[in-house]
Amino acid sequence: MTREPRIAVVGGGMAGARFAERYGALGGHGSVTVYGAEPRAPYNRVLLADVLTGRYDAESIALPLGGAEPRPGCEVLAFDPEARTLGLADGTVEPWDELVLATGSNPVLPPVRGLRRPDGQGLAEGVHTLRTLEDCGRLAEEAVGAKRAVVIGGGVLGVSAARALAALGVRTEIVHQGPHLVERQLDHEAAAVLRERLLALGVECYPGNRARAVHGGMGGPPAGGWGRVGAVELANGYRLDCDLVVLACGTRPRTALAYGAGLPVGTGVLVDDGLATAAPHVSAIGDCAEHRGIVHGLAGPAWEQADVLARRLSGADPDARYTGSRPRARLSTGDLEYAAFGAVDETLDPGLDVLRITDATRGSYKKLVLRGDRLVGAILLGDLATVDALAGAWESDGPLGGHPLHLITRGVLR
Fold first, then answer.
1. b or e along 398-409 (b: 16 or more beta carbons within 10 Å of the residue's beta carbon)?
2. Is 77 exposed, middle or buried, given 0-12, 13-18 or 19+ CB atoms closer than 10 A?
3. N or C: which end of the chain has fewer CB within 10 A?
4. Helix crossing, 14-25 with 299-314: angle to 10°?
């Protein structure tokens, strides 16, 4: 008799959970085991800022696994592609027939003095990342007694974290090295509206500024020894007093496991259109995977990759291929929301036209980027009522019916 396949998913994040759920839903045979280093089963990491504010609890953001066996708190230290085994942190060795690397990414720590303890063992007291539920729990505890916080990084995560801290009553400031907030998805005008909305929520922003050092209270620790954070020093010498610092400077793919097994690694683990690595029966998806020179680092593309791999390995579509993603950026958290997708910088192509509406009273901004009668990009901030209609028009890449103004005033496609 043919033995049922054993599928090991290394990484208990959103990509690994999505693969497990879809594999089960597609009727894949055999057993699927999801190994996660965190003490919790997979959850929706996108909602961490809302967990911080109390909008959701930890249990409500859990992700379905489609019958797969979760192994939380079970870190994988190595794998052998030839023997098809995993080496776990507790010393045990587990066999597998198909291996899915979904190891995700680590927060990037910026080159700022004083972030770490003098012995290098962890971050200084009062300095946090926001990548896991454990991070969220520690930050929530310290936010109770905090008065001022500085968020280093003004991308999607930084804005979400700052808004959450402000909702908890902590006066918060964002220091961002880029020219404006969320510069990868928003243009200057949208970022200006976003900055005003944040200011109304109690968040001040300093774009075009770089954090140089973290200092303790009265200029002492942590940069000079043990103690709690007391200020963030900017490159121009100005200091922002604080008792909390949140690092939101992006992420870096976790590739050490793949590299140690001899797999080709660039920025991420190199995969082909089948999401397969150079080693037989080893695939990679999500934040750790590099496909055609691109590491997306977003939930949408990670799930698209997981869906393709689930179709291929389950046998539902053995020839399933991933040819890339057209990711959307979206933030929808309480009183702050925006969405952006496609080509939003019309200055890069003289053949593009722009339709823009700004409502200062309502704090909203809408922009369509058009090539003839086709939508090639859009930004919505403060009002997402028409986002689904816009996204559908963009993804279909077909001609728009009627005047494009309908797309951002009523969402009517004719």
1. eebeeebebbbe
2. middle
3. N
4. 40
Q: Count how many Cα atoms sit within 13 Å of the Cα of residue 149 in the half-sphere of its side chain.
A: 35
Alpha helices in 274-366 (DSSP H): 299-314
Q: What is residue 222's three-state secondary structure?
A: coil
| Residue 287 φ then ψ, to 5° | -60, -25
**Cα–Cα distance between 103 and 95 in angstroms, integer?**
18
Half-sphere exposure of 350 (CA within 13 A, CB side): 0
Closest CA to 164 of 177, 179, 149: 149
**What are 127's two structure tokens?**
């300095």
pTM of the model: 0.93
Q: pLDDT tens digits, residue range 164-221? A: 999 999 999 999 999 999 999 999 999 999 999 999 999 999 999 999 999 996 544 4
Side-chain half-sphere CA neighbours of 190 within 13 A: 25
Q: What is the mean pLDDT of the chain?
A: 92
Contact 411, 385 (CB under 8 A): yes
Contacts of 161 (CB under 8 A, 6+ apart): 49, 52, 130, 151, 246, 248
Bigger pLDDT: 405 vs 60: 60
Give yes or no for a contact between 143 and 162, defined as CB atoms under 8 angstroms apart.
no
